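yo, Peptidase S8 is done. seq:
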Amino acid sequence: MQLRSRARLFGTVVTALAAIPLAVLGTAAPSGAAASAGATAHSCATAKAGFASCKALVRTDVVAAKSVAPNATPSGYGPSSLQSAYNLPSATAGSGRTVAIVDAYDDPTAEADLAVYRSQFGLPACTTANGCFKKIDQNGGTTYPRKDGGWAQEISLDLDMVSAICPNCHILLVEAKSSSFANLGAAVNRAAATPGVVAISNSYGGSDASDASYGSYYNHPGIAVTASSGDAGYGASYPASSHYVTAVGGTTLNTASNSRGWSETAWSGAGSGCSAYNTALSGAASFATGCAKRAEADVSAVANPSTGVAVYDSTAYQGYVGWMVFGGTSVSSPVIASVYALAGNTGSIDNNYPYTHASSLWDVTSGSNGSCPTTQWCNARTGWDGPTGLGTPNGIGAF
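structure:
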């Protein structure tokens, strides 16, 4: 099975960029400014079957900045914008809860980079020393796997999104020793066995597969397990197609002159589809998904790199280091995991809960991720649709 990481950053590395100096971005593109998207380049080479292919892409139409002045704002949406867009109680909720991030390989600068992000946006420190941050290998120890620059970008994206949405949460980073599905699954199980973990985000995926083969990695009652729906449009992806997870799609998020202050449409890359193997969620029965089995996505959040998020990463890869703009459903999966943590209900609910509380979501009713056999599988509409599911968070009531 070919697995695919869900980090999605825009841009193609071109020779001309080598002559462009790294610059401070804050005054040129304020947080939340929607930029036009450039071409894309994968951060990682395509992996062989049974392994995850990290597909982090960097927005090369936004020049990376090694640093940003204290009173300036990096390009891309920051915590205040995301919290506003989704009406979240981030300042007051989440204390005592842990969000786990599962990724492959080692990001040696993960904690230091997290400190830069949180300091820049005025968030409380989250360090090993103060007990907020913990990094372990898939066996629970500190024998970390080898460094990988592409996956390091993925890790920084994930950690920054947890920080943006739930700054009072603790963060557990579990690094799998390779990008094989077995090792990533073992890392998920390790995260689930760690006291205090209420949500686990998985920003990777592959072709549709059976829970009979892999479901034990994701079946953790009492913990919200989220998975990216994908960045290639229509076509079911595992583990998002698992019966046990919340499948997270993607949107384009823009400021707007309406009562919410924001508008969203389906992102053209957001994954969607029907599993050929796994049982449908009982909560989806009244939403006319058109899928005989498991439908994805369930819910969604910002993922379009054109309206991407600010991320800091100092493990240089392809010449990019510092402040960058990211997109993809690698953004939306940790966002939704962190909203679950803000709500604090995971001990008593499962992934059907959003279906019985859809009124607490912003319904996304326009946009498409391409063409498909049944309209709602790839076109946003009132109610459930494939690219955006039931919609995006409007507070924590659906979680």
